[in-house]
Amino acid sequence: MSTQIEPVLTVADLDCMPDDGNRYELIEGEIFVSRAPTLTHQLIVKNIIVLFQTYLDKYPVGMIVPGPGVIFSDLSGVIPDVVFVSEERRGEIASGERISGAPDIMIEIVSPGAENEHRDRTVKRQLYGKYRVKEYWIIYPETREVELYRLDERALKLVATLKDEDDIASPLLPDFVAKVRGIFRG
């Protein structure tokens, strides 16, 4: 009896995928397909961008970008909802059409469904930790919560689960403080 081995996809294969409104991501050679985001999802993205950009206008310590392609390796390329890249890393990883390397902060907004939650909470968290993303925010629109993970020596570890009235802050963003409810406005 022979075992059939599935071919491993690469980021180059992703570039050949159809432009059909779906989001194609590759994690360790495995393809993940997501539908276009919902209106609620996109309003949260907008709110995050506004919060960050207001801060960055006063403290120009980096850039905030919605939905960029992030390439970690030939076998892993994702489209996170929002990323923050510090000025000190910008020239190193954000000098082309995509981000090539680990952004400082990656933010994912969980779409409905157990599969989506598993992908964001487990698969992507492990990937982002492997490639040394410093901070990872997982946003849950249905419960209006934010899980905040920070990199320790080997992995992204949960440091807080924040609710509407809580403040969100980051050691990567000096003097940045925002109410979690501001993320869900609209």
Shape: globular
CATH architecture tag: Alpha-Beta Complex
Number of domains: 1
Structural class: alpha+beta
- Kindly provide the radius of gyration, computed on alpha-carbon positions and rounded to a whole number of angstroms: 17 Å
Bin the helical content: 25-40%
The neighbouring-strand order within the major sheet is 3-6-8-9-10-11
Structure in words:
28% of the residues are buried. The protein has helices at 11-14, 39-58, 87-93, 114-130; strands at 23-27, 30-34, 62-66, 70-73, 76-78, 82-86, 99-100, 105-109, 135-140, 145-151, 156-162, 167-169, 177-179. The mean pLDDT is 93. It has 186 residues and is α+β, with helices and mostly antiparallel strands. A 6-stranded mixed beta sheet has the order 3-6-8-9-10-11, sandwiched between helices. The chain has a 3-stranded mixed beta sheet with strand order 5-4-7, with no helix packed on it. The radius of gyration is 17 Å and the shape is globular. The protein has a single domain (38-184), classed as tt1808, chain A.
Features:
186 residues; alpha+beta; tt1808, chain A; six-stranded mixed beta sheet; three-stranded mixed beta sheet; 13 strands; 26% helix; 32% strand
Give the topology.
Elements: H1 11-14, E1 23-27, E2 30-34, H2 39-58, E3 62-66, E4 70-73, E5 76-78, E6 82-86, H3 87-93, E7 99-100, E8 105-109, H4 114-130, E9 135-140, E10 145-151, E11 156-162, E12 167-169, E13 177-179
Parallel strand pairs: 4-7, 8-9
Antiparallel strand pairs: 1-2, 3-6, 4-5, 6-8, 9-10, 10-11, 12-13
